[in-house]
């Protein structure tokens, strides 16, 4: 069941007016269990990002996001954790931006800047905490590219994305970050490289959701430790890194 956890209060998504419904199996997370993707709601970026505005209204200042992603960057291995330093919003090139339509000035300006979308201090904190925990061998930093899904990429698409500067490719996160940044919240995001992007016509590899879930299970404990240590560090410093 999809639930929204706020302190000890647990709300069903179905009980929150206008809240979208998650349809993808296997996306539990710490505070919001059940995620929304472009494919869930007929490419309506506004609806899938509504939770960010709910967070803002609840007084949230910093948003942590995680995702599973394929890796077109040859330096990335399955199981690597990539701190996202920037994104490419591919659906945005076709006009699918979650901020399209009338701007709600109560949240932010009409034309928000995105060159600082992923908070520099939080990225450094992640790398520092990872080093303390002994995670350096699988920590990376890179650019995440969001596509609409739900089909995985063709070989030609993977090659193109790599040449465009994408290190990881997935189906979420960038829309949420755009809306969170519009509302002035700080953003930090991680990609777990759950599968290699297939770049070679002779390869027998095929992207599939089971591999994505399995890689997630294998790294779950370390990811939880990394994020919870970062959150504890932030709390200790009054959210000021
Ligand atoms: O919610 P994320 O972006 O982690 O989920 C990815 C995208 C698809 O839902 C799924 C593909 O296996 O994982
Ligand atoms: O290879 C991928 N492509 C797109 N989305 C994904 N989510 C997990 N792996 C992938």
Description:
- This protein has 241 residues and is of the alpha/beta class.
- It has a single domain, classed as 3-Layer(aba) Sandwich (Rossmann fold).
- Helices cover 32% and strands 21% of the residues.
- The protein has seven helices and eight strands; from the N terminus they run βββααββααβαβαβα.
- It has helices spanning 45-48, 50-58, 90-93, 120-133, 155-163, 174-182, 209-236, and strands at 3-6, 9-12, 32-33, 62-71, 81-89, 139-146, 168-170, 186-196.
- The strands form two sheets. Strands 4-8-5-6-7 form a five-stranded mixed β-sheet, sandwiched between helices. A three-stranded antiparallel β-sheet has the order 2-1-3, with no helix packed on it.
- α2 (50-58) runs parallel beside α6 and α4 (120-133) crosses α7 (209-236).
- The longest helix is centred in the C-terminal third of the chain and has 28 residues, at 209-236.
- It is globular, with a radius of gyration of 17 Å.
- The N and C termini lie far apart (35 Å).
- Mean pLDDT is 89; it is low at 26-30.
- Hypoxanthine binds next to β4, β7 and β8.
Can you tag this structure with a few keywords?
Rossmann fold, binds the ligand O=P(O)(O)O[C@@H]1C[C@H](O)[C@@H](CO)O1, five-stranded mixed sheet, 241 residues, alpha/beta, binds hypoxanthine, three-stranded antiparallel sheet
Question: How do the helices and strands line up, and which of them pair or pack?
Answer:
Blueprint: E1 3-6, E2 9-12, E3 32-33, H1 45-48, H2 50-58, E4 62-71, E5 81-89, H3 90-93, H4 120-133, E6 139-146, H5 155-163, E7 168-170, H6 174-182, E8 186-196, H7 209-236
Parallel strand pairs: 4-8, 5-6, 6-7
Antiparallel strand pairs: 1-2, 1-3, 5-8
């Amino acid at each position: 069941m999809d639930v929204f956890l706020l302190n000890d209060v647990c709300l069903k998504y179905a009980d929150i007016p206008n809240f979208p419904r998650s349809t993808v199996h296997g996306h539990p997370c710490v505070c919001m269990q059940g995620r929304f993707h472009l494919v869930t709601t007929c490419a309506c970026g506004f609806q899938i990002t509504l939770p960010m505005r709910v967070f803002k209204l609840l007084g949230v200042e910093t948003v942590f996001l995680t995702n599973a992603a394929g890796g077109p960057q040859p330096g990335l291995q399955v199981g690597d954790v990539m701190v996202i330093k920037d994104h490419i919003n591919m659906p945005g090139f076709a006009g699918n931006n979650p901020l399209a339509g009338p701007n709600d000035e109560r949240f932010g300006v009409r034309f928000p800047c995105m060159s600082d979308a992923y908070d520099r201090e939080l990225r450094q904190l992640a790398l520092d905490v990872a080093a303390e925990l002994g995670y350096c061998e699988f920590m990376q930093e890179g650019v995440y590219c969001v596509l609409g899904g739900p089909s995985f990429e063709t070989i030609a698409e993977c090659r193109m994305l790599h040449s465009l500067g994408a290190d990881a490719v997935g189906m979420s996160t960038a829309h949420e970050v755009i809306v969170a940044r519009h509302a002035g919240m700080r953003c930090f995001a991680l990609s777990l490289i759950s599968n290699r992007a297939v770049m070679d016509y002779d390869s027998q590899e095929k992207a599939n959701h089971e591999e994505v879930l399995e890689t997630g299970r294998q790294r779950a404990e370390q990811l939880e430790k990394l994020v919870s240590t970062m959150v504890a560090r932030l709390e200790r410093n009054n959210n000021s890194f």
